[in-house]
Write a structure and sequence with these properties.
By secondary structure, this protein is of the alpha+beta class. It has one domain: PK beta-barrel domain-like (M1 Pyruvate Kinase, Domain 3, Beta Barrel). 23% of the residues lie in helices and 26% in strands. Strands 1-8-7-11-10-9-13 form a seven-stranded mixed β-barrel. Strands 6-5-12 form a three-stranded antiparallel beta sheet, with no helix packed on it. A two-stranded antiparallel sheet has the order 2-3. The longest helix has 14 residues, at 204-217. GO terms for molecular function: catalytic activity; molybdenum ion binding; pyridoxal phosphate binding. This is MOSC domain-containing protein YiiM. Pfam families: MOSC (PF03473). Residues 28-165 form the MOSC domain. It comes from Sphingopyxis italica.
Amino acid sequence: MKADILAVLLGKVRPFRGDDEPSAIGKLPVADVVAVGAMGLAGDEQADRTVHGGIDKAIHHYPADHYDWWRGYLGDVPLLDAPGAFGENISISGLDEQNVFLGDRFRLGSALVEVTQARQPCWKLDHRFQTKGVMAQVVKTRRTGWYYRVLEPGAVRAGDALDLIERPYPDWPLASLFGLLIGGEAKSRLADLTALRDVPVLAETWKARRAKLAEQFGAD
């Protein structure tokens, strides 16, 4: 599996709601080569590092192919005219939550990255699109995007390739993972909840989520 990178995007922290609420969700494409390190792309910022960024969420990828669906759902929204509407760092066609798996390792330009979790949406998506229900539709349709951790630093630019190197956990497509931990499926999938305990590449916050659900529903 190999795809060309359509855009590499960076964002700066700035007021989000016209008041003091800070956010860096407004990310813009850059043409230059961007260094990739353990904390993500050089020059990219996150306002609240307790829930955004960090080792397990160093780079956010949102599928470009989802934009057509969102245009059908939201109508003519200028945000959807270019990559970056969902705060993504990487835009690519041909990959989505059905064919990307937890633990997939990709060569991103010259860097090596690993899929750690699907993106858990927050209220900022509704505010960004000025429409209620965007966050809910992300959950319902599993059009979530995902995060990478950086295993080997390197550099990337638009036009480089994202190349699948290894798929160690082929039982865990991201749509299924999201449904289990966020989408309300845990009670009916106790065996999966137990099996996920043995997948070490899962992001630490989602390991805690798995453990909480396992305790709640009596899984191992």
